[in-house]
Write a structure and sequence with these properties.
The complex is a heterodimer of chains A (249) and B (445).
Chain A: E1 7-16, E2 23-33, E3 38-42, H1 49-56, E4 64-69, E5 72-73, H2 79-89, E6 90-94, H3 105-115, H4 122-131, H5 147-159, E7 165-169, H6 177-194, E8 198-201, H7 205-208, E9 213-218, E10 221-227, H8 231-248
Chain B: H1 2-11, H2 13-40, H3 46-80, H4 83-91, H5 96-135, H6 149-175, H7 195-217, H8 227-232, H9 235-245, H10 247-263, H11 267-278, H12 280-310, H13 316-349, H14 352-360, H15 365-401, H16 413-436
Classes of the chains: A alpha/beta (249), B mainly alpha (445).
């Protein structure tokens, strides 16, 4: 059995703009995410967590460093290869759900398969919809679904290709506490039962507590790590990070 | 409110440029013919006054109807695509009335500016038009151009008023109901058409068909050979504008019908089929001018052809009438073409976020572009089909009236040419609209 990580970044750096206006968003990040783990990436605004996710997803090209997805270095891939990477090896869950408004729940879930030129596997799509508790909503358009339901459709869609990594960007940012709990429990469940690897950017200590471990970013660098996090411990650490950044700036 | 309106205009430059161009051209066209009508009211002989009045009023009012319809539909797209923002404004405390005033202020700014500049273009255009008429011997050489502020002011008022009415109707729809942020994506094609729109569409179609029937049963037997033309000539446009009025619902039905077949061609066609049928109210605004363009070009040009073959070539009155007909058609076709391009630009500009989402999920740039092109192909296909159907309302009765039978004796190549041209135009405008978006990469939340 090969033992490489699902996602690995080394020396990852990204700078916005150049010359005197250059803003470093990431300044050398080394992280490895083992298969079947659920990691939360946290940090204050401007700590580089979104840039990290965008670089990992191939949406932005890092200024320096490597990105290795499922044992394959994808850093120098061209746009086409990145596109294939996104639809075949990565799954996305966003704060804004990002469902296509004119496709039903079932069609949205099957979309990544179709984009990859495969047939939409009806059994698998149905199974995933049932898994996220929306078996009876397969033919609804997104407008007929609540925010929590839309996010659950997005999770089913992210899982449909059995991606190497599921990247989640503030997946509960637009949801109320109860709905957020349902969504996080689903993510947790996909790790426990499907062995899915998840990397989730969040600012919410409660959300982070669903993960196996939390990585803290400050000013584009890894500033700490916490295993088996609880909401209280994460909140305490975050307050501490805030002080660190204030001293730094 | 005004500064907010200007800020919002700048923010949505593409969509509003589309409206602006429609308004500008529309005002230039209506204005040019209005100056002719004004010239005709001046110190000219009775015959010249008659010709100029017919030119100015008949051609001008047909042009106006088409122009106003297009301005209304282009403006409608830009207003409707802002449902989310209007929702946001209302959530932060704008009353429905304030939100509507914002939309109206923007519409007033765009149509006002476009109409005034268009009217300024109309003045020299009217001059050129009159020179053409004089050279063609249709009015005497002594007629002096008398287009002036009155004609242009009426034009500006007419265009701005239509723009405002169109904006008010759309804005009212997006501000009724409770304030919510969730309406943006509610923009799926389930919104029902208003009863008065359905009624208007049916009345126009009914009127056009009735005129066609009158042509065959009554005016075909009239001693004046041009009586049958005056009853059948406008039928194709009436029916086409009627169908265009109903375009969102027609697009929904027809594209749903062909969705399963198109969907089997692959993911690109599949996406396009569902987008056209489930969001028909947006692409309906592109379908409308395609129908009018096809029907007008085929209907009127074949009418002129039939007349030429039967009696028109040797008939003095025929020359004037056919020049008029060609003018109307040329004007209408150019205008409808501009509207197709503009409407596509406005629709696609409003879909940037959604197309970017497709890229994010793993669609290649080519898949995104091809899916928009496939939508254009569906719209063009349905548009030329309905347009050809509408053109029959003129071609068949007039051919019967001139004893050629239901199928005209010549020019059967014309519909083919028009279909190819209209389809090509629709596809090209889709391609330029999607290319104008630039690369759809980068972070999205």
């Amino acid at each position: 059995m090969d033992t490489h990580a699902a996602l690995e970044v080394t020396g990852l750096a990204h700078t916005y703009g150049d010359g005197p206006n250059a803003v470093p968003a990431l300044a050398g990040v080394d992280l490895s995410f083992a298969r079947g783990t659920f990691t939360a990436v946290m940090g204050p605004s401007g700590s580089g967590k979104s840039t990290f996710l965008n670089c990992a997803a191939g949406l932005e090209r890092p200024t320096a460093g490597r990105v290795v997805v499922d044992g394959r270095d994808v850093t120098d891939d061209d746009e086409d290869a990145r596109t294939r990477l996104r639809r075949e090896r990565l799954g996305f869950v966003f704060q804004g759900f990002h469902l296509l408004p004119y496709l039903t729940a079932e069609q949205n879930v099957g979309l990544p398969l179709r984009l990859a030129g495969r047939r939409s596997d009806r059994t698998r799509v149905r199974e995933l919809l049932a898994r996220v508790g929306l078996g009876d909503r397969a033919h609804h358009l997104p407008t007929a679904l609540s925010g929590g339901q839309q996010q659950r459709v997005a999770i089913a869609r992210a899982l449909v290709t059995a991606p190497a990594v599921l990247l989640a960007d503030e997946p509960t940012g637009a949801l109320d506490t109860t709905t957020a709990h349902e969504v996080l429990a689903l993510l947790r469940d996909s790790v426990d039962t499907l062995g899915q690897t998840i990397v989730m950017v969040t600012h919410d200590p409660v959300a982070a507590a669903y993960a196996d471990s939390v990585v803290f970013l400050v000013d584009g660098r890894v500033a700490g790590r916490m295993d088996r996090p609880t909401a209280d411990a994460v909140a305490g650490q975050l307050a501490h990070l805030d002080q660190l950044t204030r001293v730094a700036s | 409110m005004t500064s907010l309106a200007w800020a919002s205009l700048r923010h949505r430059a593409t969509a509003f440029t589309a409206t602006f161009v429609s308004v500008l051209l529309g005002a230039a066209l209506i204005g040019a013919f209005a100056t002719l009508a004004q010239t005709g009211m001046g110190d000219v002989s009775a015959d010249d006054a008659e010709t100029l009045r017919i030119m100015g009023i008949v051609v001008g009012s047909w042009g106006s109807a088409i122009v106003l319809f297009s301005v209304a539909s282009t403006l409608g797209i830009t207003v409707r695509q802002r449902a989310e923002e209007i929702g946001l404004l209302r959530v932060v405390g704008a009353t429905p009335r304030q939100a509507r005033r914002l939309v109206l202020a923007e519409a007033a700014a765009v149509t006002g500016l476009g109409a005034v500049l268009g009217a300024l273009l109309a003045w020299p255009a009217g001059l050129v038009l009159l020179a053409l008429l004089r050279n063609g011997g249709m009015v005497s050489g002594t007629v002096e151009y008398a287009g002036g502020p009155a004609a242009l002011a009426v034009t500006v008022a007419l265009v701005v008023l239509t723009g405002l009415v169109a904006a008010a109707v759309t804005a009212r729809r997006s501000t009724t109901g409770p304030a919510t942020l969730a309406i943006a994506e509610a923009a799926s094609g389930t919104a029902r058409m208003r009863w008065w729109r359905v009624l208007l569409g049916l009345l126009l179609i009914g009127y056009g068909v009735a005129m066609a029937v009158v042509t065959i049963t009554v005016t075909a037997h009239d001693s004046d050979p041009y009586a049958s033309m005056s009853t059948s000539g406008s039928s194709c446009i009436l029916v086409a504008v009627g169908l265009a009025t109903l375009s969102p619902v027609l697009l929904r039905w027809l594209s749903s019908a062909c969705a399963p077949a198109v969907g089997r061609t692959g993911v690109v066609g599949w996406l396009a089929a569902y987008n056209t049928s489930r969001r028909s109210h947006l692409l309906g605004a592109v379908l409308a001018p395609v129908i009018v363009l096809t029907s007008g070009a085929v209907g009127v040009l074949m009418l002129v052809g039939i007349d030429h073959r039967t009696i028109g070539a040797g008939h003095p009155e025929g020359r004037t009438i056919n020049l008029l007909n060609n003018l109307i058609t040329g004007m209408m076709v150019v205008f409808a073409a501009v509207v197709v391009v503009n409407a596509f630009a406005a629709v696609v500009a409003g879909r940037r976020a959604e197309l970017q989402r497709l890229r994010l999920l793993g669609a290649t740039p080519s898949q995104v572009e091809r899916s928009v092109l496939a939508e254009a192909a569906i719209v063009a296909g349905i548009g030329v089909l309905l347009g050809l159907l509408a053109s029959l309302a003129t071609v068949v009765p007039f051919a019967v009236a001139r004893d050629e039978g239901p199928v005209p004796d010549g020019q059967l190549w014309l519909p083919v040419v028009v279909v190819v041209a209209a389809t090509g135009l629709t596809l090209l405008s889709a391609r330029s609209a999607v290319r104008r978006l630039g690369p759809l990469t980068g972070a999205v939340r």
